[in-house]
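Form 7-S
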Amino acid sequence: MDVPSDPYAAPAAAGTAGEGAGIPLRRLLLAVGDPLVDVLAAPAGLDVRVDNVVIVDPEDEAEAFAGDLVLLIGARGSAARHLVRAAARRGAAAVAVKVHSDEPAYPPPQGWGTAPQVRRGGEEVALLRAEASDAGVALLGVRPEVRWDQLQSLCRSVLDDARLTSEADLGETAGDLYSLAQTISALTGGLVTIEDAASRVLAHSSGEEADELRRLSVLGRRGPEQYLALLREWGVFSRLRAGEEVVRIDEHPQLGIRRRLAVGIHAGSQPLGTIWVQEGAHSLAEDAEQALLGAARMTALHLVRHRTEATVGLRLRDDLLASLLEGRIEAAALADTIEVNTDRPALVVAFAISPSGAPGAGGRAEPARGGGTDRSGRELNRRRLVDLITVHTAAYRRTSLVTAVGGRIYVLMPDLARGGGSSGSGNADSAADSSRRSAESSVLALTRKTVEAARATLGVAVQGAVGSAVNSLGAIPDSRAEADRILDAMGRDLAMDVATMSDVRTRVLISETLAYLRGTPALRDPRVSALADHDAAQGSDLVVSLLAYLEEFGDVRTAAARLHIHPNTLRYRVRRAESVSGIDLSDPTQRLFTHLQLLMERAT
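Output:
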């Protein structure tokens, strides 16, 4: 059972509704947002204030009052609609309900592609969204695997921190962390470093006799990758993320690592960072581990505040943009976060680093400079590429937005010109189509320029796909899905660097069909497979010869010239292919399916 033992316990005291108590919903989302919850609807925006967190059971009579974040347990999907409306009537600021919102809009068959799936949530989420929007209350979708007690604990920790913190000292977080590091150092007798979840140094204590790991971390403001790799290999990070365990790291003189203690910093179940205590000239204090546990809990409040205030604009904007691209949030909910017109045409451009061996310009992939092929190198290339794309798109359109989702980088191009109309509807449609084509053409040119700049500046082979323009931000997942389909085809067998669907629609459809055939063995013709097996065993060229023959519509001379062989040689190979496989090329249906499967065999 994933509910707390006392789900109806009285919540911590909060200010009276209407007196400015609590915190904006957007600030709460920074601590408990993706991947725990999604914003499904926000008819009043994300600046509504949350004062309290209450849990409501469908059979309980507990009331929600103004400013509450209501967690609906035991009710999912459409069954929760009447509870959402009831909470809104009682003045709730937001309602959280568990929904199954991760089903793709177009479920791909096995082997269909590698793009991050577009999540719509289906009719269940649509009904809940409509109910919440009509009732005027924010709706949060909680992932099914999230425990209610963990979510409640995390939300309350954020609210408690807000109550203990005045607006005047919000800017003192960095100074507080350095002071806290010095205090922890005094309590443990060691040299302290406080780092975030990405191993970036946020604060450190003073002191001599730093080992090589501490010295490089403080100087570089981040743990050096070679040491981080060792810590991952030793299982240190997995233990730190698991809970409130003080982890001991033995001394390794040959590696420049002295003995140290480490503890994870958590808000609920969400890892926020780590405190490291290096042993200096003297042994650590006897109660160093106990002191470190208390320090981690105290530091969690500082880090939550640091995250919510220092990155409120960029991180929340990125999370919401990713949610919009994946169809998990209504465009109207972004109105007070992203300054764009939700009713104007828009489109999505998707970029991806070419997979190994994928054709770049000139038909080959180019090695990346300064990154390499290891995980850290790929991540460095991706970050550089995000920066480059952001610079280029911002120069093109001030309101463009860039975010990375699942290894791909997406650009939202909003506020495209809407075609003007004349008195005749036909002329109006024509003008709109012309305007859309002009916008797509302009974005396509920008995409080519960006891909070329990535190759020239970063030495990275990049592919870019431009989705079709849609009439409003509400339909932007469709443009993103189209761009993903093009990138998928590029990664499989489409030898292009930049394209729109109108450029390559037929080839994308063929590529998707072939991908479906690859992932569905029952649809393969065993006679064509036997022909490919014969070539492999005998070293013959029947497959490539028959494919050339079919692609040239049976024109033996043209196909033979393409293969640089005599026409009679090609005639022999075609007859031999029919004999080996048993395929009758005079039958148009056999000929059609043979052609498709030969294309698949060639690309495999």
